[in-house]
Specification:
Elements (H helix, E strand, L loop, with lengths): L1 E6 L4 E7 L3 H20 L1 H18 L1 H12 L3 H25 L3 E5 L3 E9 L2 E5 L5 H14 L3 E5 L5 H13 L7 E4 L3 H9 L4 E5 L2 H14 L3 E4 L4 E5 L5 H13 L9 E7 L3 H14 L18 H16 L3 E4 L15 E4 L6 H4 L6 E7 L2 H8 L4 E2 L3 E3 L3 H10 L6 E2 L14 E2 L2 E2 L4 H7 L1 E9 L1
Parallel strand pairs: 5-6, 5-8, 6-7, 8-9, 10-11, 10-16, 11-14, 13-14, 16-17
Antiparallel strand pairs: 1-2, 3-4, 4-20, 9-19, 12-13, 15-18
Helix pairs in contact: 2-4, 3-4, 4-5, 4-15, 9-10
Length: about 450
């Protein structure tokens, strides 16, 4: 069976990929098991040399990869170009810091003995990743695992099969040893088969619903997981916030990637005194943006990844409107253009029974609610099953620290700062995931611990 790749900018078929079978997955597992001892024996310095060639090859194809991201999943080219460069930079950080992050640690030493803790690879790792940031998702989830000595079997989303094919070609071009990084292609059924296969660890990025199912699969196999799942990040705007300085960050935190970002700011919680200013300035920015095909350099906002995503977003917004939400701008799909286009939207008069409050909204829709007291803002922010990102807008540094300490999220940033850095852990609380990516924390979560006590 073949899977068609659809350009969401116009719904044209741009290619096909053969879906992997159970036999294909079994063969990949066998190949991975065969490659594992040699990959481990290379040690970190040897693996770094291979990864360095791979990174260089990715850089040589960066323009092609950026264009493919735009064509296949709808990321505007003006966002895709820097996204690819950022992914390469992050991969280089992993490479350059792997040895330090994974270095043996002496926990005790005297004149007779020495106790050393080592971090060793898990083995065969299955990585299942989504479509929203095709290169970044691949690097975030597979880069540290490979450097740590694991071998990886990758399944990218069925929405970006051509992108995965290109990564496979680039890896071969770079001389990646056979079986070290393998690829399977298909939808959730293929991912399910991979999760049930003979693997030693499962890494997943995607929806909370799917993540919880895969967590049960891993539990039955008694294997470790790293899971980065959904989010409904709050952004609290206090009365002392400088709106002119931060409004651009608020816009980007919600509408970058057409709002299809796991830790994106999805619920804006604004002090009553700032509501009118924030809503009107956001409305002005939104309405100044050009919606159009992802590959058009003049397009500020592209399509959603698929018609399926468009239908889901429409349902959430219509539910809110039916329950009394007010549309400040947008609130509907863009019928003038063929493709999965939804107008960037602001909704107010939000109530807790609305889907846009209860569910993850994966698209260019931002809700705005108001508060009067600091505790009320914190309670509203935490009123969600999710706990990935969080944003606090205030000039008061002590208030920012105080509020951040009470937010039930894995990451919090103040004003125009960003927590997404290669040295910071990325991951969430509650139903937003288990484990972390990036930094020493990511390396630790894809390795196992061994203590060795020897005589001196």
């Amino acid at each position: 069976m073949k899977i068609k790749s659809i350009d969401p900018s116009n719904y044209d078929v741009i290619g096909e990929v053969e879906c992997s079978t159970a036999k294909d997955i079994e063969d990949k597992i066998i190949s991975a098991r065969k490659a594992l001892p040699g990959w481990i024996d290379l040690q970190i310095e040897g693996r770094k040399k291979v990864i360095e060639r791979f990174i260089s090859a990715i850089a040589n194809h960066k323009d092609e990869l950026a264009k493919l991201q735009s064509i296949e999943m709808g990321m505007t080219i003006q966002e895709s170009d820097p996204d690819v460069v950022g992914g390469i930079d992050l991969f280089n950080w992993y490479k350059d810091n792997a040895a330090k992050c994974l270095a043996p640690e002496v926990t005790f030493e005297n004149d007779k003995e020495i106790h050393t803790v080592y971090r060793e690879p898990r083995g065969v790792v299955a990585s299942i990743i989504p479509w929203n940031y095709p290169l970044a998702n691949f690097i975030w989830q597979c880069g540290q695992s490979l450097l740590a000595g694991n071998v990886v079997i990758l399944k990218h989303s069925e929405e970006v099969m051509l992108f995965e094919k290109k990564i496979e070609e680039i890896a071969k071009e770079a001389g990646m040893p056979e079986g070290v990084l393998s690829y399977v292609y298909g939808d959730g059924k293929v991912g399910d088969m991979l999760a049930h296969a003979d693997i030693d660890m499962l890494c997943f990025t995607g929806s909370t619903k799917t993540g919880k199912y895969l967590y049960k699969v891993a539990a039955e196999k008694f294997i470790p997981v790293v899971m980065e799942m959904g989010g409904s990040a709050p952004g609290i705007v206090f009365e002392d916030a400088d709106i002119d300085e931060t409004i651009g960050t608020i816009y980007a935190a919600r509408f970058m990637g057409c709002g299809q970002m796991c830790d994106g700011l999805k619920r804006l919680i604004v002090h009553k005194s700032k509501f009118e200013e924030v809503s009107q300035k956001l409305k002005s920015i939104i309405e100044s943006k050009k919606i159009g095909p992802a590959t058009d350099p003049s397009s500020d906002v592209g399509p959603l990844v698929s018609e399926r995503q468009l239908v889901a977003l429409e349902s959430q917004v219509q539910d809110a409107i039916a329950k009394g939400a007010k549309v400040v701008t947008g609130g509907k799909k863009l019928d003038e253009q063929k493709g999965a286009y939804y107008m960037p939207s602001l909704l107010t008069d939000i109530t807790a029974d609305m889907k846009v409050w209860q569910e993850e909204v994966f698209g260019p829709v931002l809700t705005i609610s108001t508060f009067e007291t600091e505790q009320e803002a914190i309670d509203m922010a935490n009123d969600t099953i999710y706990g990935l990102g969080g944003y606090v807008f205030t000039k008061d540094k002590e208030k920012a620290k105080r509020v951040a300490a009470q937010l039930q999220t894995g990451m919090v940033s103040q004003n125009n700062l960003s927590y997404i850095k290669p040295y910071n852990p990325f991951g969430g609380y509650k139903s937003s995931g288990i484990g972390r990516e990036h930094g020493k924390y990511g390396f630790e979560d894809v390795t196992q611990v061994k203590v060795v006590v020897t005589e001196k």
